[in-house]
Structure prediction request, 317 residues.
Amino acid sequence: MTRTNDVRPVAAAGGESLDLIRLPLDGRPGFEEFLGAWLLRAPGETALVDCGVAGSYARLKKALDDLEAAPDLLLLTHIHLDHCGAAGCLCRDYPRLKVFCCERAAQHLISPQKLWQATAATLGEAMAAAYRPPLPVPASALVAREQLPPAWRVIDTPGHAAHHVSFLRRCAGRRLCFGGEALGVIPGDGASSWFADGRRRDSIRPATPPRYVLEIGRESMRKLAAADWDLFCAGHFGASSDRTLPERALKQNLFWEETIAQALRDGLSEDETVELLRREDPELANLVAYTESAQSREAYFLGNSVRGFARFLGENA
Prediction:
């Protein structure tokens, strides 16, 4: 068994292990360590949480082959393509694989055409080319939450997406929470490459695309604050043992509502609002230490997150 540079060991004890597999988007600066898949191995079980896009599947498959890991379970925090886009590829190559996502989203895995069309329209031609269209997931591969192994607990955490869920699981002596983007984008221990000097710093960037509903997202943050975990495994990117993450994300969310509401009253543009938040939000202070390509990536997503707040506030004025 060998390890590629794409595999980051996170925890190992008692015959169990957790690894983070990074899934770079070739030719897309700033996306070398942004997409990832969590690989959990325990006696009788090899599970993935999220799987990246079809365009990064070759990297995922090579990592699995090098580790001699054949997944039998795929758990999806949500069905945005950067988390689920390779699910059909996995089902093709691992015919016994079972797949779980929030039940209300399952049809989009079986018939992903509308999901792909909406994603491609949002991303633009260049990014869509890097993502690549997803393959369909066979309906027979999908399982309900009641059919999951009892070691897994599912928590509904809508907000970032209406169909977002999080997973709790004990493994390798740790109490894991796979929280996707319910708390936002968090540079965990695996994200030192985001920073120009290679030294990781704390930050949270909201992941609140339209249509975002403030109180729904906040309730999910409260659920994760109350959940029993000691290692948070983020969708983007890496793990953190900071138990204050949900409280920090909630405080930031409230600050963004107040700041964006005032920006709307003052007639600020979206770009001006983003710059205001970068100056005033302490959770964004360390973005200045990001590499140029990571800052460019975050500039796009900051605008999309501001848009989610602005549309909600405009519709509920």
In short: The first strand starts at residue 7 and ends at 13. The chain has a mean pLDDT of 95. DSSP finds ten helices and eleven strands in the chain. The radius of gyration is 19 Å.
